[in-house]
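Example with several molecule types.
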Amino acid sequence: MQRWPVVLFLAWVCFLFFAGIGLFMSGFLLTRIELASSSSCSDPLVPPPWERQSLPPGSCWAPQRFSKAVLVIIDALHFEFARFDPAKTSPLPYENKLGVLHQLATAQPRHARLYRFRADPPTATMQRIKGLTTGSLPTFIDVGSNFASYAIQEDNLLAQLVQNGRRVVFMGDDTWEGLFPKKFFRSYFFPSFNVKDLHTVDDGILQHLYPTVDSGEWDVLIAHFLGVDHCGHKHGPDHPEMAKKLTQMNEMLRSLVDHLGNDTLLLVAGDHGMTETGDHGGDSEKEVNAALFVYSRTPLFGSGPPEEPETIPQVNLVPTVALLLGVPIPYSNIGEVMADMFAGDGDTVSAALQQLSVYHINAKQVDRFLQSYSLVAQDLPAEQLQHLQELFSSAVEEHTQLLTQVQGTMVPPELEPRLGSLISRFQHYLREARAVCTQSWARFHPPRMVGGCILIASSCLLCYMASELAMSSQSFCHSCLLYPLFWGPVGAAVLWLVHVFTQEGLDLLLVSSWAAAVSQLGFFWHWWAWLGLAFPMGILFFRCGAMFSDSFVVAEARVTPFLLASLVMLLVGKLHWDGRLTVPEGPKQQLLGFSSYRREIWYLLCLVAMLLVCVRLSSFFHQCREEIPQCRPSVFLSPLASLRNTRAKNLFYLLCVALLAGLVYAVQSWLRHYGNLNSSGPLVLFVRWGFPLVVLCIACYWAVASSADDSLGKLQELVQVAVVVFPRAVYGLASVGLLLLLCNPMTVFAKDTRESAGSIVTPYLGVPGSEVDFLHVIPQIYKRMQESQKSWLERGSCRATIAAYGLGSVYSAALVIALTLLGFLLMLLHSERLSFAFLLLFVEAFVLLHIHTLTLIALIPVGEPFSVPWYAVISWLLAASQFFYSTGHQPIFPAIHWNAAFVGFHLDHNTNLLPAVLVGANTFASHILFAVGCPLLLLWPFVCEMSNSQRKKLKKESREELQEVEEHMMEMRLRESPEEFSTALLRLGLKYLFVLGAQLLACVCAAMILRRHLMVWKVFAPKFLFESLGFVVSSICLLLGISLVMRVDCAVSSWFSQLQLR
Amino acid sequence: MREAEVRRLLGANLLRALAVILSALLPPFLLDGFSLLGTHLTWICVCSLCVATLNIVLHLVLKPNQSPKRRSFAHKISRFLKCCIYFFMSCILFHAIIVLYGAPLIELVTETFLFAVLLSTFTTLQCLCLLGPNIQAWIRVFSKNGAMSIWESSLQITSMCSILGAWFGAFPIPLDWDRPWQVWPISCSLGATFGYMAGLIIAPLWIHWNRKQLTYKSR
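Resulting structure tokens for the full complex:
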């Protein structure tokens, strides 16, 4: 097989998988259907006639109560931040800081009130802004588009305000710019993406806020502060910086209140809360629990505040503000008006009448929305809609009945309780409607989902078949046909017997499907037994089965290491059971009944122990999920800058840098050992000098980044520059290195001591003279040269030679260099102390390769050298997913390391591509490294050939030298049979894709089958998204890795042809 | 293959299974507040003790591998001490392996160690009784054609079933069912026990069914 077909075939298989993923995703992650209609003043939502005449000018559906409003959104204003408890003596940094809210609420109980503001998940800022303006529930898929906000198409509060001639002024978070393009009368946008920047947005708003308020050229003013949210992301809520930020907000509110006029409504709202670590995005209690504060200079509420602040859903703000400002409620709103703000200053009866009228308008609007929505989409269950319709019409009927008995605002006293009950009926209707919508706005497209599933499954099957094609043999038919035919009737008979004994009716379909299942089992049983696959496939089966249980997905960080350890232990156990570890029994042992181990067993056991220790140690780097409340996130996840203890900080810093240096040293000495460091080519020079330079840059960056923010004083500006320059230097150096690797991947040093005279026509090979040379340098050369050397030896003269240093490991050397460079890049993107996890990753991969080599070469000499067994591929992939967790990730959105987008980029990004790549590389670091390193599984046994034969040589000195040279072929064995080499690479890639695809298939099926599960949006859907993204990243990196090997192969070919020419 | 020996093996294995069952059923009458799940550590101790005693008694009574030579008393003592050391070392080894598999490192050390003791009782102790402190013989027994008598075949099957049971016992731990038996190490020790009992039942049956194929090499 040629080189290109291999890569093309693999790419085609990847494409099949991608298509399946895409098809499934389009069916699984649909957005809610957005209605294009919008409300207008002239809508036939007729208010009662007596009220209609009394509508003041500028009012639409209900009388306008405020002509102006100020909406202050403090991002991530958790309810606990806004609550003030005077009894608390030693408040935490985030407690009791917003004193002004408390003072207003206690001094003027009818003017001000604090609410618990329940955000709907997902609690990402863009979704919350959508919810706060449309009054609807944004769906899951929108989370993905958080980087680039798209304009809101639905009817919303801002559109209504603009439509009715209000001047809306905005200042703050520039997410609004994308959502509401050209809607604002005047706007001051500030970049929102840099979460490390606490002050730009807030200071910018404060600069414009008071002048704007005083100028009076506005009707609605929206100010979106981001400092609190960014402070939470950077430091967490429990930090002195948060106290500073909240105090600043307090001062802002205090002076803002003084600037307000009598006709102005002030709303202070948090769009979502934050977790203990300052993150948000999910639906945990802390994330959805925000605060809302309402204040006006004129009395607003009919009665004093309740004991415990009321809890209201976030969408309720939309109809309330719309009606208070006298504009129509947005078309798709499903929120409910906040009745106590419509009480006015009249008596209870007139208050009740007013509330009744707004409820009536609200209910009619929701009913209209539900009706037109059900015309467009069928996802709301019909019987529930019917039920809602009944609720609505009966309430409306009673309402009209009641109104006929009411004259003006005079209500007969016997009707007063009926007023109250009617209000609660409207309330009941609105809440039911909201519940129905919440429940079913995860709409699926089953045919597409099934289609995607089938496509992925068939691609998996294709991978498997194609990778096993070479293994077909005579006994295939026997085990494929005979056993299933035998087992099918047996299964049917068993079921029939069971039915006879239990006296139950016999269903033909059941019997036949049972027979089919059993015969298939028989097929797989015999086939697998024949292939000796049962045990690695069993582990893969458990791994895939675990995707179907939310508990196992939550606990996957512990499940994967468990399975990896089991796989390796089983491998050793199986080797022992088959007697591969013991020396073949001689007569002496047979006599005693004992068996003794080979020498390699101790090496193998040490490796297994090392692997287990690595696996166990890697569990110290786990991030936590909220589902496991007793879990504490690893201390290594936080950046060094957050450490307060200076000594510990310095110590960790030194350790990290030493680790980097150690890694460089290890890689260099490995290359030197195999003779790949002798050449003077640009790549080798880069390995010699570029690697230490990269490490130096990373060390400098870490030093600058981990130093305290304020301690440097005047050097601040220099630090700002350094924080950007050093990572960019690393990016530059690494890309130079990768380019060099692509241009000239040969790390071979040819020492040509041939006589230049034309007397010797064909080149030939000998061994270098000194013993040291022999130990550290491997002379390699083509077979033809050996043949000619034979004749030379027979003549028994001259020592002239071509010594090609490092030819035997030229493929692996290129891969190792690429992996090291990638490792540096990925370490740079992670927080400093996670480099320990990367060290474990490299060690574990090294150990896995050695175990694989040992079992393949030393212990099973009959094994095919060109085929990588399944257990190796599966353990490689298990290690990849294990280190996904051990580099501090979890398949949930709040656990994404967003900070990675700012490594080397201090200012805001212009495009979304670069931050997406950086964050993606951070998240899938282990997938990238293991996928690129995948061809090593094929190459390593050849590389390690030397050390084994060397050991043999030490034992048996008498061996002929020539044979020794033949054994030192190493990776050139691969070159000798290019056909088999290509096929082996193809099969390895297909096996890798099969195992990846099986995991993906399990995730996809789990998401499809459990799509109505309680945990689907919290566990299965994020898991599916992460797994499919991981698949895409892995497969692309696998292609890159295999192409790199091919590139080296091309270079080796041209090198040989050059050698021939000389 | 003598049928009588298989019958003896079946009897011995049934006795062992009975001992395990009794270790769960009897103590509530003797000890206050004993329950399998509530005072699980006590049960592990009781169960290990019962099985260990029974194994030793059975070994002395049945003498499955009579050695022709008569040994001196001092030799027997040293052999016994060696056995004790081996048993202790196997407990430590099991403990280490369990921790490497993901058991907590510092917390719950007692629980983990007692579980290791239980596993050692089900596996190592039987080896010690049958084969003595002879690693080479152990290695030989646990390979494909290594068993030389039905007792050794039974040893193979029961040990593997115990370890497999313990492995499967770890599966329910992450589930969110909030059952009392999901607490570490209850599910694993129960799994090991059920695996052991299953092995005890399976071994004679398997040997009976495969008696044609089983041609043990004579010494």
